[in-house]
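Known limitations

Files may contain more than one protein. Parsers should not assume a single record per file. Below, a two-record file is shown to illustrate correct handling: read the sequence, read the token line, then continue until end of file.
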Amino acid sequence: MMKEDRMRVLMVGPDRSVHGGISGVVNNYFDAGLDRMIELCYIGTMVEGTKLAKLLQAVKAYLHFLVKLSKYDIVHVNMASDSSYYRKSVFIRTAKACHKKVVIHQHGGNFPEFYEKELSHKGRERVKTVLSMGDAFLVLGTAWKDFFGTIIERDRITVLPDAIRIPKREEKQYGRHKILYLGRLCKTKGIGELLTVMPKLREQYPDVRLYLAGIWEDKELQEQAEALKEYVTDLGWISGAEKQRYLRECDIFVMPSYFEGQSVSILEAMANACGIAASKTGGIPDMIIEGETGIFVVPGDTKTLEAGLLKLLADPELCRTLGENARRKAEAEFSIDNNMKQLLAIYETISCREPHYEK
């Protein structure tokens, strides 16, 4: 039964069982108790599987949304690009037609390519109309505020980075030469380049080992990793205590993505004081400061990736310094508790605003 004095938020996004960044963010909110602070209902609009399974879930989710909508004041839409945008635009338009306050939470690292290269002029105009329907528009970093500020009014955009529960501080051993990657295993995450440089790293550091944790989306890359199984370990998808164990035991973390919205995995590595080598793209520069909390590599470039990893492998004390700085930054800026306070303040603010309608 709903408590009348609490904010009522209807949140939509990929099903919480989906292996991905948005689901991870949503699950972090639930784990931290957001659903105990407000009246929160979550509707999963997408599941993993066949196109038919995804279509059926989308239809089911929309019908569920229609049933629930009248009981909630705010609709919080977690959106990426491509098919995610098209699905969520239906929910946004419906919510505004029913005079609900709308929070659009943009997570898509590939949105610029989608917007600039895949859409026609009319398509871009439709995107502007839909995104302008948000009473609040949340992005993951300052680079995203700059980008979306060219599409909608900049003063309606708020930077709300992803956040995590900060684990208890534990002593970490450096110089182990254990490299960890967490995330989707595909070309656009830089896995091809990472596997290419591993034999070269091993020539100088015979004890080096790479741990890949995630779901394979590219058969050729999976076969390439299998050929290096002597020093490349395929962990599959890991979570909970098992993921925390690898974050604690591995002294180096790598994220060589071509693009990123932000990266919950990097936040987890920061909180576990790893020496980090990551691409300078999307929201990552808000987390990684070159030479202070990590090392930047160029997306798609094996030379800078190899050089960055060699630098970390060669210098355990550098790894320690970067890791301890990263831990402090995660505590100060990316705590889930602080993030939720900001989110609740945003809900409060838009609840007091007059309805916004796009002319």
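...continuing to the second record:
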Amino acid sequence: MNPLFSIIVPIYKVETYLGICIDSILHQDCTDFELLLIDDGSPDHCPEICDTYGGADPRVRVIHKENEGLVKARETGIKLAKGTYIGFVDGDDWVEPGWLKAAKEIADIYHPDLLSFQTYLNFSARESRVPLKLKPGYYDKKALEKYIYPIMLYDAKEPFYHFGVYPSVSNKLIRKELIWENRCKDARITMGEDAACVYSSLLNARSFYIMDDYYYHYRQNESSMTNAYDPDRFLKYQYLLQYMEQILKGPKYDLENQLKYHRAFRVKHAVLNESKSKGNIRHRVRRLQAKMEQYGFADAFDHLETENAGIASRLFISLIRKRNYAGLMVMCDIFNCLQKWK
């Protein structure tokens, strides 16, 4: 018989943590699962680690493929999966032992199209929780339409910016046919891949169950978060936002306003990233202005309500609306400096 769960681990350059990840899955209290290790052409020792586990446990299936990125790695896993539900665990993360047992109990009773659970953020010296704001329990289609869809991408009652449903696939289990139909189909998308499929899956789901317990540990690389500069961030977000508008806009559910706020959220992070570029402030300001205009993001905050925004967010938004890129750069430099000293 096919397993209830197929757990997919896309793998690329995570040899330091991969054993911890795999062991946490294989040591689940529930054994009704298969584990698919998708080696995305990793150049380190990950392929050998995968083969060692594959040879020792019949629940483990190892797929070696050329490097094509996360979207294609996940698609490969979904296509080969035999389980009713698909789950994803990043190769440097790990899960709690009772995860699948609790999910099986819910699935046996409610048979939801999606299940979601709570997440830990794990830093080098501390751990924090990311609680879901939505009430735990079962949501049928009417409840989805009443409580979930109106705040799915952005909850206007919360300070800017707050997801109604966190877009990660890692804290969800999704029926195979649902996620296959709503998988991200644009391999150019390398940031926000989860949002590109989670929200579409929710819109097409008949039911959703939110669990109240914490099961997923999301490892935070503090060095890369504070220091890394990505010169293509604006382009990557343009690919993502164009794709999301294409798949989420429609007459059935009005998500246009939420998409506008989501666009602004991505632009905010693109600006913060751009402030990390090299050069004196004059050169960096010119680059920022050029990219804001080139990718059509200069007006991202022009027509949004910001009453619930905090002081820092209101200042950030005001500077963008005035096209005061020099002031914006100074603000971002201060923020990045404070982040490094945390």
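Parsers that stop after the first record will miss the second one. For reference, the second record is described as follows. Strands lie at 5-11, 33-40, 60-65, 85-88, 94-95, 114-122, 127-130, 137-139, 172-175, 208-219.
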